[in-house]
């Protein structure tokens, strides 16, 4: 599975748009990019998954450039409740059941 | 729809003692996973079940950890004897099948003194 690199931490303020970028230079042709969110004292939760270009759902958008060597998770107008750790995972569709988490990005949203 | 249930939520034991964790997956989910999450790190897969059979236990420390899912529904993870480095949150997850979205439980926080 491709190695991912993402910032350890990020700070933001309520109402701002937050973009978290993940690098995955060794992504394979059949790999998907998946983001999970984890609140304190809870298990991770699936946010979004994509293969190329742009994917949007009710929670976030995922931007993937043509070379697919990086991806950006975009959270529109964050609130205090978006404070969490965000993980970028790269691998076969839904990882073939074997999720490999990195260290994640700890997002802190301030009032 | 009920989520993945885990118990206990917290457990404190002394090293060399044994401990067991219980997980009840979402109804109908054939695949069940146990993860270990050490503070400040992402979760690490310990074992994956498909119904009552083990699919992947390559990262399970088999000298002290064991897991079972006898009837293909709920599962238990046991540590015997526990070491200080086993202090972590143990997360259970389930999915309809191996390639489907995984749903995580709240976890059991284990502290080994």
How does the SSE layout of this entry go?
The complex is a heterodimer of chains A (111) and B (113).
Chain A: E1 9-13, E2 18-23, E3 32-38, E4 45-50, E5 53-56, E6 61-64, E7 70-75, E8 84-91, E9 105-110
Chain B: E1 5-7, E2 10-13, E3 19-24, E4 31-37, E5 44-50, E6 53-56, E7 65-68, E8 75-79, E9 88-95, E10 103-104, E11 108-112
Parallel strand pairs in B: 2-11
Antiparallel strand pairs in B: 1-3, 3-8, 4-5, 4-9, 5-6, 7-8, 9-10, 9-11
How much helix is in the residues of chain A? under 10%
Compute the CA-based radius of gyration of chain B.
13 Å
Strand order, largest beta sheet of chain A: 1-9-8-3-4
Oligomer: heterodimer
Please tally the helical runs of chain B, counting DSSP H or I stretches of 4 or more residues: 0
Q: Overall 3D geometry of chain B? A: globular
For the sheet with most strands of chain B, the description reads: 7 strands, mixed
Termini separation of chain B: 37 Å
Number of helices of chain A: 0
Strand content of chain B: over 45%
Shape of chain A: globular
Mean pLDDT of chain A: 92
DSSP summary, beta strand count of chain A: 9
Largest protein interface?
A-B, 19 and 26 residues
Low-confidence stretches of chain A: none
Poorly predicted regions of chain B are none
**Based on helices, strands and strand pairing, what is the structural class of chain B?**
mainly beta
What fraction strand of chain A? over 45%
Compact description:
Chain A is built from no helices and nine strands.
How does this model look, in words?
The complex is a heterodimer of chains A (111) and B (113). Chain A is an all-beta fold. Chain A has strands at residues 9-13, 18-23, 32-38, 45-50, 53-56, 61-64, 70-75, 84-91, 105-110. In chain A, strands 1-9-8-3-4 form a five-stranded mixed beta sheet, with no helix packed on it. In chain A, a hairpin with a 5-residue loop joins strand 6 and strand 7. Chain B is mainly beta. In chain B, the strands form two sheets. In chain B, strands 2, 4, 5, 6, 9, 10 and 11 form a seven-stranded mixed beta sheet that branches. Chain B has a four-stranded antiparallel beta sheet with strand order 1-3-8-7, with no helix packed on it. In chain B, a hairpin with a 6-residue loop joins strand 7 and strand 8. Chain B is globular. The A-B interface holds A 41-46, 87, 92-94, 96-104 and B 4, 31, 33, 35, 40-45, 48, 55-56, 91, 93, 95, 98-102, 104-107, 109.
């Amino acid at each position: 599975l491709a190695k991912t690199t993402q910032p350890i931490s990020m700070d933001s303020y309520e109402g701002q748009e937050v973009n978290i970028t993940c690098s995955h230079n060794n992504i394979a042709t059949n790999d998907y990019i998946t983001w999970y969110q984890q609140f304190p004292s809870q298990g991770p939760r699936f946010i979004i998954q994509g293969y190329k270009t742009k994917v949007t759902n009710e929670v976030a958008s995922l931007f993937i450039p043509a070379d697919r060597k990086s991806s950006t998770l975009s959270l529109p107008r964050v609130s205090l409740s978006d404070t969490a750790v965000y993980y970028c995972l790269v691998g076969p569709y839904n990882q073939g059941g074997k999720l490999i988490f990195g260290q994640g990005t700890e997002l802190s949203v301030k009032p | 729809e009920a989520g993945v249930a885990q118990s206990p939520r917290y457990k404190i034991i002394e090293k060399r003692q044994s401990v067991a964790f219980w997980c009840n997956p979402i109804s109908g989910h054939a695949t069940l996973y146990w993860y270990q999450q050490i503070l400040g790190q992402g979760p690490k897969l310990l074992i994956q079940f498909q119904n009552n059979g083990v699919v992947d236990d390559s990262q399970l420390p088999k000298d002290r950890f064991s897991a079972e899912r006898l009837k293909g529904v709920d599962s238990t993870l046991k540590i015997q004897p526990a070491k200080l480095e086993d202090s972590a949150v143990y997360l259970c997850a389930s999915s309809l099948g191996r390639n489907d979205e995984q749903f995580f439980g709240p976890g059991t926080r284990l502290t080994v003194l």
